[in-house]
Design goal:
Number of domains of chain A: 2
Radius of gyration of chain A: 23 Å
Oligomer: heterodimer
Low-confidence stretches of chain B: 1-7
Shape of chain B: globular
CATH superfamily of the largest domain in chain A: P-loop containing nucleotide triphosphate hydrolases
Number of strands of chain B: 6
Order of helices and strands of chain B: HEEHHHHEHEEHHHHEHHHH
Largest interface: A-B, 40 and 28 residues
CATH architecture of the largest domain in chain A: 3-Layer(aba) Sandwich
Mean pLDDT of chain B: 88
Structural class of chain B: mainly alpha
CATH topology of the largest domain in chain A: Rossmann fold
Number of helices of chain B: 14
Strand content of chain B: under 5%
Largest sheet of chain B: 2 strands, antiparallel
Strand order of the largest sheet of chain B: 1-2
Bound molecules: adenosine-5'-triphosphate, magnesium ion
Number of strands of chain A: 22
Helix content of chain B: 55-70%
CATH class of the largest domain in chain A: Alpha Beta
Helix content of chain A: 25-40%
Chain lengths: 500, 330
């Protein structure tokens, strides 16, 4: 095989789901020793392309050559054997098994025909160490944060030592530090001659890491260029099919700063979750929660929403003591939470987009006061249009939507319920840039209507843009609050670093 | 937005097709299968027998369908039938008719609530929670009847399963009524959607504010009530209460009917019409074998095969390829 021939060569690959054309005659060449970005809006067909390559779904037509030979794996396991390895967008691991078992599953080293557990643990530790992680490999995966689960999935993919590594939005819930570790590993692999396909919605990561970019739009190939020949504005225009609107102005609090707070939490703690947290959310303002992986952001949100009960401290809502015993209690008082793990805690997979959107609203009204079908249709259609949810119809099962579009439908579920306090845990995870702007403007609308928002995001620029205050968490404690003039990514990072 | 073109075939198709196939077989090979006469103000014939005898399974299957849709299962329905029959038979000679009915149904409801509480409060696995009553229930029935087979001659009670109304046996009307009520309630209110949501992803439902435990409690209670109705019908039919044999294996037939009807055992989407079709199919198959002198010992085999066939046709994989095949020709 000549040195400059591609590692992977895809020709006119097509895939339909019923009436939906997910991929329309796609061509793609990936060279060995290069990192190739696959870009496109939510629902453009990126994940479907990857699933076709890995044999997770059967393609309708087209040819795929891998190292010059036809490649048509019957399942991801076959693809792994052939030298391809993937981190799928939805972490496809087994929650009830340990971290070590998940990393080595299906490729266990055996001794006397039995699985060698000690060797499996050591291998898992080595795989995680490549990402700079030292965690307990015996803990159950389901108990880990979504970021950690994502890292475990990456470690699993790296453990295969493949010649083509495919990563579908691997960084969507990672912080800078983990992202930097990952990029270092990817660069090393590239230098060793591995070909890498990298999917993300973070443009800066593409420019940091990737050598070439391919853009898909509505299942069709738009452009493939070297990264240096495709500057940012052109890339965005290629993805959207139009020039984007200027991003909205950053928000400032709509209410005067001294207005009575909507929610005040003091001294919250819970074993193995939060050591000490103070938090004030004013009416008509967005408060951000910043912190590194494992700093306790989601844990704090879970307490406010009544999923976990605090073991100390108190919460006041509208000046009254508030101790929710369940999410239902919190919801009854107007609190809403979009969870970070959309697959296990968010979507109801076999129900339609419409049913998923009206679920919270209907649950609050109870069984008997049902929304009429016409009302449900109107609500669903409104949010499908406003958030640009890409679905063939409101009656499509939500599991057939692309990851980003599922996320939008979950946001719609809570926006439709019109909460007084909306807690957003990584709401823009996996969402494309156009939709991000739309979500930021919806948040602004909520704030202007007097609601409070608690915004958790690992993307600091987004926090700075959307929030008028930012509470910083470190090692499961709140360590300070930054306020509107003088909010910047640097300040947040300084605050985290300064606190010993 | 325009309505979508169906991406898959309607779920009721396969059980209906299987039923049609069976009827065709009987049309060709079973003489007299379709003959129905009008005698003494009621219809008489094999088809009517099938309707009549499937009504008990159909009634229980309606409750079972809702339980399965929440991701659970109720193994105790057969035992609950025995309990309710025992209650009705013990009261048969001394209490007024409404008391008998209310006591029997009340016993069913209580049994269902008991199952529901074990599942929602103690968070037991449904299969374990209802296994308790499945095993203990027959003992309870024995206690009620003092270990005897109690027979009775109460005309009003005997009439329930042995008389006709508008030409059809009363149990058929009861089954139709319960199914219609359940379908109307679940589809006219939000109950159906919420039950399906709970069966599909209960954590997401909890985080969305769905009162998941009340829904679960409700479906188990309803399932118990359905078993109570079936118990009343069974004891009326045989004019006796038999704690050992009343409702024996009824839970299996009800689960089969629900599965044949397209309700997934894992929970989620359900179809009451499908379960009714399933109950009919099971009874028609039993009757067909009986009429062809298949011995009762081997009869479960063809039944199992038929179930297998319908379930394979409903497997997601087969379904998509069939839908594609059908779409390609349309
Ligand atoms: N199993 C399925 N059944 C029906 N339609 C599907 C199925 N899987 C994907 N699709 C459709 O195919 C299209 C492409 O989806 P895909 O998941 O590849 O998008 P994506 O580019 O990965 O988007 P995202 O950035 O949101 O992850 C979408 O319109 C989606 O609705
Ligand atoms: Mg995707």
């Amino acid at each position: 095989m000549p040195a400059d021939s591609p590692l992977l060569s895809v020709r006119s690959l097509s895939k339909r789901f019923g009436a939906v054309v997910a991929l329309d005659s796609i061509d793609l060449d990936v060279s060995p020793g290069s990192i190739h970005a696959l870009m496109g809006e939510n629902g453009a067909g990126k994940s479907t392309l990857i699933r076709c390559l890995m044999g997770a779904v059967r393609r309708d037509g087209g040819t795929v050559l891998f190292e010059g030979t036809a490649c048509d794996p019957a399942s991801p396991r076959h693809a792994e054997a052939a030298g391809l390895s993937t981190v799928f967008q939805e972490v496809g691991l087994i929650p009830h098994m340990s971290v070590a078992e998940n990393i080595t599953l299906g490729r266990e080293s055996r001794r006397w025909g039995l699985i060698d557990r000690r060797e499996a643990r050591a291998r898992a530790r080595r795989a995680l160490a490549r990402l700079g992680l030292t965690i307990d490999v015996d803990q159950e995966l389901g108990g880990c944060s979504i970021a950690l689960q994502q890292l475990v999935a990456i470690a699993r993919a790296l453990d295969v030592s493949a010649r083509l590594l495919i990563l579908d939005e691997p960084t969507s819930s990672l912080d800078r530090r983990e992202t930097a570790e990952l990029f270092a590993v990817l660069r090393r692999l590239r230098d060793e001659g591995v070909g890498i396909i990298f999917v993300t919605h973070f443009l800066e990561q593409v420019y940091q890491l990737c050598d070439r970019i391919t853009v898909l739009r509505d299942g069709a190939h738009v452009v493939t260029r070297d990264t240096r020949d495709l500057p940012r504005p052109q890339l965005i225009a290629a993805m959207l099919g139009r020039t984007p609107a200027a991003p909205g102005a950053s928000v400032t609090s709509a209410a005067p700063a001294d207005a009575a707070p909507l929610l005040r939490a003091t001294g919250l703690r819970r074993r193995e979750s939060i050591e000490h947290a103070d938090l004030t959310i004013p009416r008509g303002a967005a408060v951000g929660l910043a912190g590194l992986l494992g700093s306790g952001r989601s844990e704090l949100a879970r307490m406010l929403f009544g999923i976990d009960r605090p073991q100390g401290g108190r919460i006041e809502l509208n000046g009254e003591t508030f101790s929710p015993r369940s999410p239902r209690d919190a919801i009854a008082r107007g609190i809403a939470l979009t969870p970070e793990n959309r697959k296990s805690d968010g979507i109801v997979p076999n129900l339609s987009v419409r049913e998923n959107i009206v679920l919270a609203l209907q649950a609050r009204r109870g069984v008997l006061r049902s929304l009429s079908r016409r009302e449900q249709d109107a609500i669903a259609d409104e949010f499908i249009a406003r958030l640009g949810i890409k679905t063939p119809h409101r009656e499509a099962p939500i599991s057939t939507l692309s990851g980003g579009n599922q996320q939008k439908a979950l946001l719609a579920r809570w926006l439709a319920a019109n909460p007084a306090l909306l807690i957003l845990d990584e709401p823009t995870r996996g969402i494309d840039i156009g939709a991000k702007q739309e979500i930021e403007s919806l948040i602004r609308g909520l704030i202007n209507g007097g609601a409070g928002v608690l915004f958790i995001s690992s993307e600091l620029s987004e926090l700075v843009r959307a929030c008028s205050r930012i509470v910083v968490l470190k090692d499961r404690r709140t360590i300070g609050e930054l306020r509107a003039p003088g909010l910047s990514e640097e300040h947040i990072l300084e605050a985290i670093a300064a606190h010993a | 937005m325009p309505e979508p073109r169906r991406a898959s075939l309607p779920p009721l198709l396969w059980p209906l097709a299987a039923l049609a196939l069976l009827l065709c077989f009987n049309f060709l090979f079973t003489p007299g299968f379709f003959s129905v006469e009008f005698r003494d103000g009621r219809l008489v014939g094999t088809l009517i027998d099938i309707l009549n005898h499937s009504s008990k399974v159909a009634i229980v299957a309606v409750g079972m369908t809702l339980v399965i849709a929440t991701g659970g299962v109720d193994l105790s329905v057969g035992a609950v039938v025995a309990i309710c029959g025992a209650v009705a038979a013990t009261l048969a000679q001394r209490a007024p008719m409404p008391v008998i009915v209310l006591a029997a149904l009340g016993a069913g409801l209580a049994a269902g609530l008991c199952n529901g509480l074990l599942v929602t409060r103690l968070r037991l696995q449904p299969i374990v929670a209802t296994l308790v009553l499945m095993v203990a229930g027959r003992g309870v029935a024995q206690l009620i009847t003092d270990g005897l087979i109690i027979t009775f001659e109460r005309p009003a009670l005997v009439a329930v399963a042995n008389r006709s109304l508008l030409a059809l046996p009363i149990p058929v009307w009861i089954a139709v009524g319960i199914a219609a009520l359940a379908a109307a309630f679940t589809r006219r209110t939000a109950a159906g959607m919420l039950i399906e949501a709970v069966g599909d992803n209960d954590r997401a439902c909890r985080y969305s504010g769905v009162n998941e435990s009340r829904l679960r409690l409700g479906v188990y209670a309803f399932c118990g009530l359905c078993a109570g109705v079936a118990g009343l019908i069974e004891c009326s039919y045989i004019k006796a209460a038999d704690a050992n044999n009343a409702g024996l294996f009824l839970e299996l037939d009800a689960i089969l009917a629900a599965i044949i009807g397209g309700t997934a055992l894992a929970g989620g989407r359900f179809s009451i019409a499908g379960s009714l079709t399933g109950a009919l199919l099971i009874q028609a198959l039993t009757k067909t074998m009986y009429m062809h002198d298949v011995s009762a010992d081997v009869a479960p085999l063809p039944k199992g095969l038929a179930v297998l066939a319908v379930c394979i046709l409903q497997a997601p994989r087969v379904k998509t390829s069939l839908a594609r095949w059908a779409g390609g020709r349309a």
